[in-house]
Amino acid sequence: MHKIILASQSPRRKQLMEAAELDFEIVIADVDETNPPGMPGEEVPEFLAKKKAAAIEHNYPDSLIIAADTVVLLDHDILGKPVNEADAIQMLHRLAGRMHQVVTGVCMQKGDKQVAFSVTTGVFFRPLTDEQVKHYVRNYRPFDKAGSYAIQEWIGMVGIEKIDGDYYNVMGLPIGEVTLRLRDFAG
User: By three-state DSSP, how is residue 54 classified?
Assistant: First the structure.
């Protein structure tokens, strides 16, 4: 197998790659994460994943680069990382009692070969009280998380009714699909 580079600083992606027993190194791709105006939210993660892979691929031509980006979509609006506590509280109130989508785009690249794909998971939040939302934001500080939450934390345990799709995708990387597609690069 090729040397694998994970182009991400996400601790959750690192955790998932380790749990899948993949041998990899982390190289942070420093890119502007703004998307082109008018691009549908569903296309943004794959666009950004490709951009991250392209930013480092010239330094690692013999390595397999895995880059990813995740967005939370509510009514086709992207809910990014909150800018402060008030923003996080407001986002969680918007998500409460509703279904939203988590879309992760992945780009796997080695030399001229590139495989890019997106995985979408529907997440159904129960109605949340103001006290629950404030407790989560103040105690878990979800400021580095798209949509202001992490499914594997307290809010996921008490606030999420069900999901339709890949749990690990909601954490930030559809690791089952990634490991499946590694065979495209075997040899």
Answer: helix
